[in-house]
Amino acid sequence: AELCGLQVATSPLSHLSFPCLVLFPWLWLTLFSKALLPKQAGVRVLQLIGEGSFGKCVKVVNKRNCQSWNVTEKRRHLFSFPQEGEQLAIKCVYRDPGTASGSDSIDREIRVHGKCDHPNIVKLYGYYELGATVALILGFVEGSELHDVLQISRRLEEEVCASIFLQILRAVDHMHSMSIIHRDIKPRNVLLATSGRAYVIDLGLAVDLSDQSDTAVAHEQTAAGTIGYLPPEVLQEEEEAINFAMDIWALGITLYEMMFGFSPFLPHEVALPAAVEFPDPSWGMVASSDMRELIMQLLEKNPRKRIRSADALLHRWFTAERVTAVDKLVGPAQSQGAAAEGVGREDAMSQLDEEMQFDLELNEDLSMELDMRNREDLELGNQYFYQYYLATVVEGGRQDYFE
């Protein structure tokens, strides 16, 4: 359909963060006023993925390559070159001119995300600026949030947990190796693609400890993150609470929830947590001794004794068979060109063709919202996705449950 000059299409089971909403072909897209979306120009808008108080995210497809475009008002920073026809997600974020911290947060997210080059971290191609708006050009992931899968299935089998968690852990270890703390690891910030690959998303709270300004911000915002995934040292406001160990704790909570379907601690217990307990085998949720050991090491109360990401990757729970299966699933690392050398480098532009074709005109009169009246259909689609994921990862075969 064509809505006010926007070519709007739909696709099955599409998802990305900020905030993430699962979309299906039968959900309607409508328009209302005073919003922000790219106009049809260098990209074709496919659908709205999600929106929040700071902006919105739309799915687009790249329409053309290598066309000259000279508009001095727009600032463009490109790290790698998307192919013609490639589906992307554009995350449009509003800058508040009166709030310096909000503007700094956007700049920090771009800079930190631009350093990450890993097959289990959603790809950042670059960004545009126009006035008070920043548009981040991200790789599009077709799948569903881990949180949504758990809402339907309640819990995952141990083999599925191992496959997903190994990928998440590799992404976090990559960030830690570059002095980056994610600070908001949780099921909502993990995407499960229909191929079986897991992606860590939303680096909005991430900080680079090698950057003094980031370190200062992290110590000012010690409680940044999501309640339920913050470690006890952060809640107790310990002086050295901001370090890689806070991501490790969040990984432990996430793995426990994946396996058992609920958090290991009640909300009032997190600040002074007791020993990690596991459900009685009579509940039908039996984890192997190796898995329980890893969870306990991830949820070690003392951050100095908590296992590191690099050591966790070598844990015996990740058997050779499981590692090989994930290696076949993930494939080679995605290259982000100049992204690995940091954000804002002018030579990145010269490598790509300085006049990139993403002609992002920002239209403040158009928007789209989701018609959520088909909530039952959405939940049914999630069930089909989970069955598809089990067939791909556990059984090693691909069955088309979407039929």
From TrEMBL:
One of its GO terms (molecular function) is protein serine/threonine kinase activity. This is Protein kinase domain-containing protein. Residues 43-318 form the Protein kinase domain. The chain crosses the membrane at residues 16-37. SMART domains: S_TKc. The active site is at 184 (proton acceptor). It comes from the Eukaryota.
